[in-house]
Amino acid sequence: MVRHIVAWNHKEGDQQQRQEVALRIKQGLEGLAAEVPGVVEIRVETALLPTSTHALLLNSTFENEEALAAYQQHPAHKQVGALIKETMHQRVCVDYHVD
């Protein structure tokens, strides 16, 4: 299995706008678990501690590297990705094999 972790910060907006955007992204990404083959789990964390350097965290698991690659090219993922690109920045990504 492969773990795919991504974190972002908001580009702009007041607290309410940021919460609304985070919820839309959470719903969009977590909804992909039922839509994209090879996804084991997708969780999006929006209530990170103040000690965190980023505001939004995607923690996901895939059957293998091929499933991760297919997820990244899936049209539904690209649709959520457009919202993320529009509203978020300072992306950090870590992918690794899970035993």
Q: Characteristics of this structure?
A:
globular, alpha+beta, 4-stranded antiparallel β-sheet, 99 residues, single chain, 3 helices
Q: Can you walk me through this structure?
A:
The chain has 99 residues and is an alpha+beta fold. Helices cover 39% and strands 33% of the residues. It is built from three helices and four strands, in the order βαββααβ. The protein has a four-stranded antiparallel sheet. The chain is globular. The chain starts with a strand and ends with a strand. The mean pLDDT is 97.
Radius of gyration: 13 Å
The averaged pLDDT comes out at 97
- How do the strands of the widest beta sheet line up side by side? 2-3-1-4
Biggest sheet features: 4 strands, antiparallel
- Poorly predicted runs: none
Count of strand segments: 4
Query: What proportion of the residues is helical, as a percent range?
Result: 25-40%
Classify the secondary structure makeup into a structural class.
Answer: alpha+beta
Provide the succession of SSEs: EHEEHHE
What is the CA-CA span between the terminal residues? 7 Å
β-sheet strand percentage: 25-35%
Mass-distribution shape: globular
In DSSP terms (H or I, runs of 4 or more residues), the helix count works out at 3
